[in-house]
Design brief:
The chain is of the alpha/beta class. It has 2 domains: 111 residues, Enolase-like, N-terminal domain (Enolase-like, domain 1, 2-Layer Sandwich); 242 residues, Alpha-Beta Barrel (TIM Barrel), CATH 3.20.20.120. It has 12 helices and 13 strands. It starts with a strand and ends with a strand. Helix 4 crosses helix 5. Pfam families: MR_MLE_C. One of its GO terms (molecular function) is hydro-lyase activity.
Length: 374
């Protein structure tokens, strides 16, 4: 029987020059951090995970060492308790699934049900650009084979002035590419960076924006109200034909139960690297499906988080497309996946998985050594 022998956590920092100015953050980002979790068994096999910083995990290693890594539900319960008392340590769950796949010699997508070995992607932009530049970016996505694109609205000072300026960017995109792409909008109203005290939209603001998005045939509007306003989300859902999406930073799976039971959203977007891991989020796949909601994860962590979300979506989900963070030059695949031996690459708008056991992760050990921080 395989038993967990050791757990190692390391932190890494990639300098960004030029910086990345994310639409949801008024401060330019001059570096990109990644946390790596390695879980090894007594036979030398290694499971790898990444995502949040693993704050609060130190001192709890003995709760896992000596246990079979395949006892995923047991480990999930322990991680859920750590999550309650300390921080989000779900990268550990990803590492355990990767190791369990290596023990069983199966890819995670097959362990999760094997519905498919690939996922359709939407290109997820991250930078606020002038309308003409946004239209050019959309044209490039069409040429690369993506079926859909997500456009960011400004959330704070330093972005576009008002949502009406954001609408102008959408209009420029539609004028350039017509209906060759499905378009989604991230309204960036659900949460803020710690230093950003800008208030979220009111319900009336969101209704006004929704009417404009209907005119432009937008597939969904994401995080249009503050995360606590579930009644407002449900009312907005009933007031517009545009799908309402959200939940990317929701902390507890129990919160999603309320969202699903109330039918507050049309689309739920948990990220396995940030909430519940693969073990927890697969519950949401089935719960959402039975309630008639769409499940398609948020995936703005790094290539490991992207892979983990892709395995869940391919193996158990049936989402029309999965988020693929990709906005050159500021957010390239090379930056996003600097921890990997080779960046993930889409193929005509698809991410193909393979039969490699576990998540199929191959780390760039030299890069990890060069970027390691205390």
């Amino acid at each position: 029987m395989s038993r967990i022998a050791s757990i190692e956590i390391s932190h890494h920092r990639l300098p960004l020059d030029p910086p990345f100015k994310a639409s949801w953050d008024g401060r330019p980002r001059h570096y990109f951090d990644a946390t790596i979790v390695r879980v090894r068994d007594e036979d030398g096999r290694e499971g790898i995970g990444s995502g949040d910083l693993m704050k609060g995990f130190e001192g709890h290693e003995e709760l896992f060492i000596g246990h079979d890594p395949r006892h995923l539900e047991r480990h999930y319960e322990v991680l859920s308790h750590i999550n309650f008392h300390y921080g989000r340590c779900w990268p550990m769950d990803l590492a355990l699934w990767d190791l369990a796949g290596k023990v069983t010699r199966e890819p995670v997508w097959r362990m999760l049900g094997g519905r498919a070995d690939r996922v359709r992607l939407y290109a997820s932009s991250g930078v606020l650009r002038e309308p003409s530049a946004m239209a050019e970016q959309a044209e490039r996505y069409v040429e690369e084979g993506f079926p859909a694109m997500k456009v960011r609205f400004s959330s704070s000072a330093g972005g576009r002035s008002t949502w009406r300026d954001d609408i102008k960017a959408l209009e420029a995109i539609r004028a350039r590419i017509s209906d060759r792409l499905e378009l989604m909008v991230d309204c960036n109203q659900g949460w803020r960076m710690p230093w950003d005290t800008t208030l979220a939209w009111t319900f009336k603001d969101a209704v006004a924006v929704a009417k404009e998005l209907e005119r432009l045939s937008i597939y969904w509007m994401e995080e249009p109200l503050h995360r606590s306003d579930l009644k407002g989300m449900k009312s907005l859902k009933e007031a517009t034909s545009v799908r309402i999406a959200g939940g990317e930073m929701t902390r507890e799976l129990s919160d999603f139960r309320g969202i699903i039971e109330e039918r507050a959203f049309d689309v739920i977007q948990p990220d396995v690297a940030l909430v519940g891991g693969i073990t927890g989020c697969r519950r949401l796949v089935y719960h959402a499906r039975e309630a008639g909601l769409m499940f398609t994860p948020h995936s703005w962590t790094n290539g490991i988080g992207m892979l983990a979300n892709a395995h869940l979506t391919a193996g158990a989900g049936d989402a029309p497309f999965l988020e693929y963070p990709y906005d050159k030059p500021e957010w390239s695949e090379a930056r996003r996946d600097f921890i990997l031996a080779a960046p993930l690459k889409h193929a005509d708008g698809w991410l193909n998985l393979n039969d490699a056991p576990g998540l199929g992760i191959q780390l760039d050990e030299d890069r990890l050594k060069a970027t390691r921080i205390d």
